[in-house]
Design a protein that fits this description.
Rossmann fold, six-stranded mixed beta sheet, alpha/beta, 13 helices, 3 domains
Length: 412
Amino acid sequence: MKNTNLRQPGCTARAIGQVNFWKHQRPDRRIGRRLRRLLSTSFIALATLASFPGAAMAQPVQNVAIGLAGPLTGSAAHWGKDNENGARLALEELNQRGLVIGGKKITFVLDSQDDQADPKQAMMVANKLVDSGVKGMLGHFNSGAAIPASAVYNRAGLPNISTATNPTFTKQGYPNVFRIVASDEDVGVALAHYVVKEMKAHKIAIIDDRTAYGQGAAEVFERTVRALGASVVDQQYTSDKSVDFMAILTAIKGKQPDAIFYGGMDAQGGLIARQMKQLGIQAKLLGTDGLCTNEVVKISAASVNGMLYCTRGGKEVGSMPKGSAFEQRYKTRFGTEALTYSPYFYDAMMTLAAAMQAADSVEPKQYLGAILQLKQEGVTGPIGFDDKGNLKEPAFTLSTYKDGKRVKVAGS
């Protein structure tokens, strides 16, 4: 019978032969050829991929959350926002470096929480941050919030770097707490010596706001001035929410003090300065870092000029080893001037990252010990901690105010 397929248009004997060839090939030979073609294609794809540097060896990425807590609302919100900005600036710079820790490229993420400068809220925030799995803790800012919250972080084994100045913060025996500024013992003693020895003040009145910070600062100052031979002629108490100090100041005025120490923050300290002026009180107003701010000038309506003397841990930002460069980067990024503690929160974030690199781990229990071994130069100066978690070389600055500007009087 004649094969009519040979006559069909487009169908040749050669084509039919090829079809028959493949039809009668053994399956294993067909699979072998297909496998060779597949391997050849894969080799070309890999060669192409390798032509892009780093593409074939890309590092896995790990997000590492860092907690931050402070007063983001309320009368101390300007402090909290400045602290947050300092930490964020460090975090962004670290992410630009593309750090690799534990074989993974690290991207830091900031989990910032508002503790409202309130101890109860601070405890809620601390538990929330621990439960969320943050790998390190910056803050709390206020001693009254930092001290109770530190117990939560201690139970979790979470490294906690704070600007809390109350000495109790590092006297609790917790191995995870670190203070990155001078304590109230450092700045309070320095102020007391200056007031008694240089200003020749012998009759001193004391007010504090009953917070852990304000009370702690007042106790250190009182103890030191008494030891230096000065007398405390009156002692009054208020709160960190008060706005009217007329009754307190009127009582103090009758004792004719040379100086009035206020343990508290600028929101109240500025009002005290204004009301002292209204009452015609000639005494100098004294305070530690809570009063040593630019905000106090505004709050007091410039009453602090020639009246206020204050000490704070560290140096003026412009006098810090890398302070001027930090100020410029801060202003470029946030469009505002850096306040007192943003450089310290910047250094705190850099310290956590450096410890993680040294331990090659982002896990708190793995890198906690590395923090004690660190020795590095930060924006604020040398960073290194003693076995209690205190800064080894704390600096201080004593200032007064002239024409609305803080002017250095003494310091380390």
